[in-house]
From TrEMBL:
TM segment ranges: 29-48, 54-74, 121-142, 148-167
Keyword Transmembrane among UniProt keywords: yes
PANTHER family recorded: GOLGI APPARATUS MEMBRANE PROTEIN TVP23, GOLGI APPARATUS MEMBRANE PROTEIN TVP23 HOMOLOG B
One Pfam family this sequence matches: DUF846
Protein name listed in UniProt: Golgi apparatus membrane protein TVP23 homolog
Membrane protein topology class: Multi-pass membrane protein
Coiled-coil blocks: none
High-level lineage: Eukaryota, Metazoa, Chordata, Craniata, Vertebrata
Gene it is expressed from: Tvp23b
Assigned protein family: Belongs to the TVP23 family.
Cellular component per GO, a single term: Golgi membrane
Tagged with keyword Transmembrane helix: yes
Length: 202
């Protein structure tokens, strides 16, 4: 499969103070609400379902419905509105599968720029919730709750797929994520070393 991507800087700092203040506001409150609502609701239902009802089937169906709604909303709506990113798969006439990762171009007038507040909400929800489902997976595995393992795996897969897709949109599909992580850690280590040397010299 081949990847198509537009590499666009989405979060450049604005020189104009008034435009910067506009960027700090939430421009899509409904999208921001539903970006967190479905995924947080699925986690809350998972944690409280044994207290609320004794029916495992009802809990499982409710959680999977919430996860499915979250997957659809984040992939098709909130990613495009809140951070200007989208990803999807298409099959061409030859039957080949193409993964497409797009980033919205910022206009010269600053129209349709992403709000910094919305960007924080988007990435915080996108990264935190899959990590919570991974913790649930280990908890279910080590506590031998095999029946819950399938539900938790669904949470990891559906939310992990969106996380992976949007990371590919943000950093570029042709860039090696491992090398980027290595470069980031190397820069952090270099900064700490230089800071320690400056403290020693002073």
């Amino acid at each position: 499969s081949s990847d198509d991507i537009e590499d666009v800087s989405l979060f450049d700092a604005d020189d104009d103070v008034s435009r910067r203040s506009k960027k700090s506001k939430i421009r899509h409150p409904v999208a921001s609400f539903f970006h967190l609502f479905f995924r947080v609701s699925a986690i809350v239902v998972y944690l409280l379902c044994e207290l609320l009802t004794s029916s495992f089937i009802a809990c499982m169906v409710t959680i999977i419905l919430l996860l499915s709604c979250d997957f659809w909303a984040v992939k098709n709506v909130t990613g495009r509105l809140m951070v200007g990113l989208r990803w999807w798969n298409q099959v061409d006439d030859d039957g080949r599968s193409h993964w497409v990762f797009e980033a919205r171009k910022v206009s010269a007038q600053g129209i349709k720029t992403s709000s910094e507040a919305e960007s924080r909400i988007f990435w915080l929800g996108l990264i935190t919730c899959p990590m919570i489902w991974v913790i649930f997976a280990f908890s279910a595995l080590f506590s031998f709750k095999v029946k819950w393992l399938a539900v938790v795996v669904m949470g990891v897969v559906l939310q992990g797929a969106n996380l992976y897709g949007y990371i590919r949109c943000k950093v570029g599909s042709r860039k090696n994520l491992t090398s980027m992580a290595t470069n980031y850690l190397g820069k952090q280590f270099l900064r700490q070393t230089v800071a320690k040397e400056d403290q020693t010299a002073s």
